[in-house]
Amino acid sequence: MNAVNHLFQDEDVAIEENLIRVSSNSAFTNQEQTNQVFSEKWGEVNKEEEDVEKMIDMQLKWYLKLYGFSSNDDLAAFLCRQNVILDAGCGLGYKAAWFATLAPDSTVIGMDFSEAAILAANRYKHIKNLFFVRGDIANTPLKKGSIGYVSCDQVIHHTEKPAETFKHLASLLAPGGELACYVYAKKALPRELVDDYFREYSKKLTHQQLWELSEQLTELGKNLTKLKASFHCPDIPALGIKGGEYDVQRFLYWNFLKCFWREDSSDKLSVATNFDWYAPSNAARYSLEEFNQWGIDNKLEKVFSHSEEACHTGRFKKK
Ligand SMILES: C[S@@+](CC[C@H](N)C(=O)[O-])C[C@H]1O[C@@H](n2cnc3c(N)ncnc32)[C@H](O)[C@@H]1O
Fold first, then answer.
1. What are phi and psi for residue 176, nearest 5 degrees?
2. DSSP three-state, residue 280
3. Rounded to two decimals, what is the model's pTM?
């Protein structure tokens, strides 16, 4: 028997090496479109190994900060206490691979609804305690109460009904288990309005047009950053704009339009980040109160909380 069969409700799951196949279609048009654009995004990013390495380096450091781990060793000590770990919405699978390497005696499952799950399974065949599933994290075939740590990083807002997804993931936790979760934060009013409008509009665009749009936004972000100009903005509470000293690009970015560009990233990764923002139909944003309510509704204790302009994150523990 394979090391993971017993974790599934139907122990007769089809496993090909490290890839477990369940249903890979959604009944919801927006989720299906979201899956397609993420298949497209990860397919592109996966082509450039140098970009993947840059992304991994940046993302792993950020992960420690987002979830309150002081170092790799601190995370490793925590993970080694978990028998089973789920990376819910694993993308290319590099965080699942990181967990599996830090906790070699634990079983790690990475799950994604897009073709990224297959790319991840190919990428990390050599890690023996790591498995991937292509399927919906809102309705997994995993047994309830079977998982010590569920990490749902930068994903839940892309699912069809995020609060329901949170409930489902919470139901998978074993007693004492933790769910680490990230949601997009609500931003200033002009940015929220543009985002909502643009995301509707972008449904009419082809993937090619979405990439072109993302390239244009990246060039805008780059040119604005290169101005190296800053100014003072007053508090404008009616628009949700916080006063203070701003770099011009950051001011536009947080308050009006996502035009991502980072010097320490490659242009291609910046384009992929902009694509990732306007292309998926599902991309909900939340206030901290709304996010905390999920924990309360599911009788989970929030044992770590962090907020920054982009997001709210937390670790929620099952008593
Ligand atoms: C921004 S990416 C984050 C990926 C990864 N967690 C990371 O940090 O690199 C969001 C991922 O969520 C996945 N996703 C969206 N909805 C999903 C769902 N209902 N079930 C499983 N995965 C989903 C997408 O396919 C995509 O790979």
1. 80, -5
2. coil
3. 0.95
Cβ atoms of 133 and 23 closer than 8 Å: no
Per-position b or e across 61-81, b if 16+ CB within 10 A of its CB = ebbeebbbbeeeeebbebbee
Q: Does any ligand 1 atom lie closer than 6 A to the CB of residue 34?
A: yes
Which residue type occupies 231?
Answer: F
Q: Whose CA is nearest to atom 14 of ligand 1?
A: 89
The answer for residues whose C-beta is within 8 angstroms of residue 88's C-beta and 6 or more apart is: 111, 137, 140, 150, 151, 152, 155, 156, 169
Q: What angle do CA 180, 200, 270 make, to 5 degrees?
A: 60
State residue 310 phi and psi, 5-degree precision.
-80, -30
Please tell me the distance from the alpha carbon of residue 269 to that of residue 74, in angstroms, as a whole number: 29
Whole-angstrom Cα distance, residue 101 to residue 60?
A: 13
CA of 154 to the centre of ligand 1 (A): 7
Q: Would you kindly state where each structural domain of the chain is located, as residue ranges?
A: 5-186+287-318, 189-278
40 Cα–ligand 1 center, Å: 12
If one residue of 46, 65, 112 were mutated to test the ligand 1 pocket, choosing by the most ligand atoms within 8 A of its CB, it would be 112
Ligand 1 center to residue 160 CA distance, Å?
12
Q: Determine the Cα–Cα distance for residues 54 and 131; give it in Å rounded to an integer.
A: 24
Reported as a single tens digit per residue, the pLDDT across 233-269 is 999 999 999 999 999 999 999 999 999 999 888 999 9
Residues 183 and 311: beta-carbon distance below 8 Å: yes
> Using one digit for the tens of pLDDT, what is the confidence trace for 183-226?
999 999 999 999 999 999 988 999 999 999 999 999 999 999 99
CA 190 to chain centroid: 24
What CATH architecture is 5-186+287-318? Answer: 3-Layer(aba) Sandwich (3.40)
- Between the CA of 183 and the centroid of ligand 1 the distance, in Å, is 12
